[in-house]
Amino acid sequence: MLKPGQLVTVSVHSLTDKGDGIATLEGRPLYIEGILPGERAEVRLTLVKPNYCHGQAVQLLQAAAARCQDFCPYTACGGCQLRVMSNSAQLELKRQLLLEALQAQGLDCPVAQTLGMDEPYHYRNKAQYAVQPGPYIGFYAKHSHQLVEVDECRVQAPETTEVVRLIRSWMRQCAVPAYNEALHVGCVRHIMVRNGVNSGEVMVVLVVAEMPAEAALEQLVAQLGPVPGLASLILNLNTATGNRVLGPDNRLLWGKDSIDDSLDGLAFSISPLSFYQVNPRQTEVLYREALRQASLQGHEVVFDLYCGIGTIALFMSRKAHRVIGIELVPEAIADARANAALNAISNVEFHQGAAELRVPELYAEGVRADVVVVDPPRKGCDPALLETLARMRPERLVYVSCNPKTLARDLAWLTDHGFVLEQATPVDMFPHTMHVETVALLTRRADEK
Ligand code: SAH
C-alpha cells in the first residue's frame, strides 16, 4: 500500500500539459515537478489517491540529455515550466506534441522543425506583476495565488526590472499600501509594463483599488522619469473584487496614452487595454510562415477570421487584392480599423461579430474567399464555421492555432470535407512554457476543384 511520505524510485516517461513529469507507479500516474522524460529520480510521495499520486523529487538519479542549468533563481514561480530543459530539446518536444496530436486523429503530413528563438530570453513585451502587502511584487506560484517575489525576470524586457524596483521604493517612501485581496483594502494591485520592442517605447500602468494622494502621484512621475524609453505612465482604477487585472478607467499621469510599435514594417498603436501579441520577434516569424503558406499572388480575396486587432489581415493585405477581417470583440475591431488607417492600407475591411455567424452571412451574400486564415482561441473553430468553409471551398486554408488538440480535431474534420492537409509548422512563441503555436496548410482537394 502506497502512503504519503513514502520514498519511491521511478522513471519519468512523459510530461503533463503543465510540464510536470509523469511516471507510472503501481498502474497509476505519479506527477513530479521538475523531472524530465527519460530521467530517474528518488521521489517522496506527497499525495496518494486511488487513481493518481503526487510526489516531490528528493534526488535525481539519472539526468536526461535534455537537462540544462535552471536559468532562473525563483524556483517557486509558476511562470516557466520547462526551465531545466535545453532550448533545442524544448523545440523538439513542441514538435512531438504537435505530431502526437495529429497522429491521434489519424492525420499524417510533413511537420517542420519548430521555429524557435536563438536567444529565448527577454522575449515578452508585456509584464504583469501582482502586488501584495509587504510590499511584495512578483508572480504567482504554480496552481495558486501565492505570490513569489521576483526582482529580475529573464523573460521580461530588461526595463521592466527597473520599473518594478522604482515602484517598490516609491510605495515605501510615500507609504502607499499594497492591495489586500482577502480584505479588499489598500491601493496598489498590479504593475503592467508594455514595451514597443522596435520603437523602444515603454508604457507603465499602475493598477490601483483606490486613488493614491496627488502628492504621491507627483512623486511617482518624478521617480519613474529616468526609465529609458518611458513614453506613457497610466493609472488604472480597478475597484472590483476578483481576478481581472485591469479596471475600465485610465488616467494619464504622464506622456501619451498609447505607445507605438512595428511588426515587419507595419505600425501599431498599443493602448493599456488592447490585445497585442506578447512575443513580437516570434510574431513576425509566425505571420511570415502564415504568409508563406498562403502563397498569395496578388489577385486573391482573403478572409482573416478571429482577426484580433487585424495584424494578420494587414500582413496579408500587402500581397492580396482584398482582405476581410472578422472578430468578436468590438474594441479589437476599432483597433484593427485604426491600425489600417495608421498604415494607409485601404484594401482591408473589418467586420465585428462571431465568425460562425458572419462568415455564413457573407457567403449567403455571395462573398467568396480564395484564401482563408483562421486563428481561433484554444477551443478551436465552431462547427458552423467549418461547414461554411467546406461549402465555400477556398483554394487554401491556413490554420493558425495555439492548441494542437483542437487543431488536429478541426483538421481531421476538414480533411473529411474536401481539403488535403499539406504541412504543419510549429512555432515557439513562449519559450520555457508548454505552449506551442502551429501554422498548418490545407488545400482544396483536386477532385473538388
Ligand atoms: N489573429 C489575432 C488574434 C488571435 S486570438 C492575432 O494574431 O493577434 C483569437 C481571437 O479570436 C481573439 O481576438 C478573440 O476575441 C477572437 N474570438 C473569439 N471567439 C470568436 C468568434 N466566435 N468569432 C470571432 N472572433 C472570436
From TrEMBL:
GO terms for biological process: methylation. InterPro entries: MeTrfase_TrmA_AS (IPR030390), MeTrfase_TrmA_CS (IPR030391), NA-bd_OB-fold (IPR012340), SAM-dependent_MTases_sf (IPR029063), TRAM_dom (IPR002792), U5_MeTrfase_fam (IPR010280). GO terms for molecular function: methyltransferase activity. It comes from the Bacteria. S-adenosyl-L-methionine binds at Q277, Y306, E327, D375. The keyword Cell membrane does not apply. Residues 1-59 form the TRAM domain. Keywords: Iron, Iron-sulfur, Metal-binding, Methyltransferase, S-adenosyl-L-methionine, Transferase. Its EC number is 2.1.1.190. It is an enzyme of class 2 (transferase). The active site is at C402, C402 (nucleophile). PROSITE patterns: SAM_MT_RNA_M5U, TRAM, TRMA_1, TRMA_2. Belongs to the class I-like SAM-binding methyltransferase superfamily. RNA M5U methyltransferase family. This is 23S rRNA (Uracil(1939)-C(5))-methyltransferase RlmD. It comes from Zobellella iuensis.
